[in-house]
Amino acid sequence: MLIREQTDHDADEVRRLRKVAFGGTAEGNPLRPGLRGLVAELDGHPAGTLVVHEFHQYYGGAPVPMGGIGGVAVDPHARGRGVATALLERALADLREHGQPLSVLYATVPSLYRSRGWERAGVFEVVDFALDRLAAGPRLPARPVGEADLPGLHACYNDLASTVDGLLDRSRPAIDVADVRGLDIASLVPGHDGEVRGYLTAERDRDGLRVLDLVGRDAETQLGLLGGLASWGGALDRLSLRVVDPAVTGLLTNQGIRYTTTTSQWLLRVVDLPAAVAARGWPAARWLRPAAVDLDVEDEHAPWHAGRHRLVVEDGSVRVERGGSGAVRVRARALGPWFSGMQDSHALRRAGLLDGDAALLDRLTGVPGVPRLADFF
Ligand SMILES: CC(C)(COP(=O)(O)OP(=O)(O)OC[C@H]1O[C@@H](n2cnc3c(N)ncnc32)[C@H](O)[C@@H]1OP(=O)(O)O)[C@@H](O)C(=O)NCCC(=O)NCCS
């Protein structure tokens, strides 16, 4: 088996592989700026593919380069022979070479990705929303998004995104904010001095209305954008709202006891621990005295960061250097959920992914996690 970079000559074969794997039409050449691909050849013929998006994901307020893996597809005749696994192993080296210390993917087959170190580390959620539960909000001076509004709209989004661990910075070339102008609905609430107070983007299809972003700098703007959706009552009973700002869906909507949230899990892999730690923001480090924890990273698929490392907190910053006693044993799969703050060291220990006293790791991320009750009363 040969694994190589995808070229423009592979366009037809890659399109075919993706069509067979995912259905649909899979139009166009998947390669473009901000996106690269790998191809697996069997007997000189493409039999598997994946793509890597050049994203940046906010952690602790800093955008960390992240390779978003998608389109993992293997020809049916070639499945079960390790083609996808070989593509992932090559992707790890490729991510490191491209300066992407993190990688995220949405997995239909978690076991495949877990075996190479990806682990659940966050959620993508869509809330299904009954229109008759919408409170009327304040009337806002909304208008369509124009070309000149795009930098302000991007700034409005990024001011929010930089405060929510995991959100992308939506920078070019991987994402072009101008694409919002091609959506069915892109409306904006202007603020003072050219600042954008908030905006809403949505797509209308036969199934209903899908609100993509509902972003506002203050409660009045958020409530006004939500209230404006009431105009769809009559035509629609419900709509769906992608959770971008958890404050909107969590604090401002009027859901009953039961409602439907569709959750997609994403898996995170720390590809290069020292580089990922250096790129992340660590707001909690400012309040910590100088401290260190000695790690022994077990990661046969990313040998460049395997072995003994010392994670050092000093003068408000955090770094990882070689050495130390290796007192805390961490398996590769533990690194993603720790880095994102989804799981604490106790949960990782119970899952068999970590051994030793790792309280400092928890203090650093703050382990915001996803709080929940498991009893109903
Ligand atoms: C999923 C897919 C990419 C796997 O490709 P593959 O080359 O057959 O995978 P591998 O041979 O490397 O398998 C690696 C491991 O994953 C497991 N696996 C693969 N496909 C699986 C499936 N559909 N369900 C459960 N486990 C699966 C294998 O059993 C194997 O486990 P093992 O090492 O313990 O034996 C391929 O089946 C495919 O293209 N499916 C359709 C598209 C798709 O679902 N893509 C994934 C998007 S996230």
What does this structure look like?
The mean pLDDT is 95. The protein has helices at residues 11-22, 83-97, 110-114, 150-161, 219-228, 246-252, 273-279, 332-340, 345-350, 359-365; strands at 2-5, 35-42, 45-59, 62-74, 102-106, 119-130, 143-144, 185-190, 196-205, 208-216, 238-242, 261-270, 291-298, 307-314, 317-322, 328-331, 354-355. The radius of gyration is 22 Å and the shape is globular. The longest helix is centred in the N-terminal third of the chain and has 15 residues, at 83-97. It has a 12-stranded mixed beta sheet. With 377 residues, the chain is of the alpha+beta class. The protein has 3 domains: 2-100, Aminopeptidase (3-Layer(aba) Sandwich), CATH 3.40.630.30; 135-253, Gcn5-related N-acetyltransferase (GNAT) (Aminopeptidase); 270-365, SCP2 sterol-binding domain (Nonspecific Lipid-transfer Protein, Chain A, 2-Layer Sandwich), CATH 3.30.1050.10. Strand 14 and strand 15 (317-322) form a beta hairpin. It has 10 helices and 17 strands. Residues 21, 72-74, 79-85, 107-109, 111-112, 115 line the site of coenzyme A.
Task: Summarize the model shown.
The protein is an alpha+beta fold and 377 residues long. Helix content is 24%, strand content 34%.
CATH class of the largest domain: Alpha Beta
The main pleated sheet reads as: 12 strands, mixed
Tell me the Rg in angstroms: 22 Å
| Helix fraction by DSSP (H/I, runs of at least 4) | 10-25%
Poorly predicted spans: none
Features:
single chain, 377 residues, alpha+beta, Aminopeptidase, Nonspecific Lipid-transfer Protein, Chain A, 3 domains, twelve-stranded mixed sheet, five-stranded mixed sheet, 10 helices, binds coenzyme A
